[in-house]
Amino acid sequence: MMEQGAFQFIAHGGITMVILAIFSIYSLAVIGERLYTYYKAQKATEQVAGKGLQYVADGKRAEALRLCEQNAGSPVARVLEAGLLAIIDQESPVLSGKRFSRRLESCKGAMQRATSAEITRLERYLGSLATLGNVSPFVGLFGTVLGIIRAFEAIAKTGSGG
Q1: What secondary structure does DSSP assign to 5-54, as a single string?
Q2: How far is CA 155 from CA 125, 161, 162, in A?
């Protein structure tokens, strides 16, 4: 049997094989990029989670904010930073009950918006990956149908249909 390279194999498979090869390359690229992104986020988050929350608990907001800025690759750092900035923006020397409630709501809202933005950033490209996973079997089925049509055409040309 003759040895074929990957490109010859794909070219011999026709348009459906080319499409499936492109889908595969794109999928592998997305998986690799997402793994790298999640790895970086996990490393940065490990640094922020313990120290940052301890700084906040101790009332050391400036240190917590500095830590968040130093670990900008962490989703947790960006959410914590949004909350800290909201608190600092609302800060006043007089802390009445209503003002504290407003600061708390402002902080909560800022952190929820930052969390939504981080989730969107972390889920980037996953929709296209799901779409390719759903479409690929149908592209393969289309290739099978084309192959069967070609087989029947070859049988009709040779007259060996029985």
Answers
A1: -HHHHHHHH-HHHHHHHHHHHHHHHHHHHHHHHHHHHHHHHHHHHHHHHH
A2: 45, 6, 9
> Who's near 135: CB < 8 A, 6+ residues apart?
23
Collapsed DSSP state (helix, strand, coil) of residue 72: coil
Specify the DSSP class assigned to residue 60.
-
Identify the sign of the CA torsion 120, 124, 128, 134: negative
Q: How many helices (H) and strands (E) does the chain have?
A: 6, 0
Spans in the chain with pLDDT lower than 50: 1
Q: Token pair of 58, please? A: 């101790």
Q: Alpha helices, DSSP H only, in 58-96? A: 61-70, 75-89
Q: Break the chain into its structural domains and give their ranges.
A: 15-122
Is 109:86 a contact under the CB 8 Å cutoff? yes
3-state secondary structure of 109: helix
CA–CA gap between residue 35 and residue 31 (Å, rounded): 6
Q: Are 72 and 62 in contact (CB under 8 A)?
A: no
125: helix, coil or strand? Answer: coil
Angle at 72 between CA 68 and CA 73, to 5 degrees: 130
User: Which amino acid, residue 155?
Assistant: I
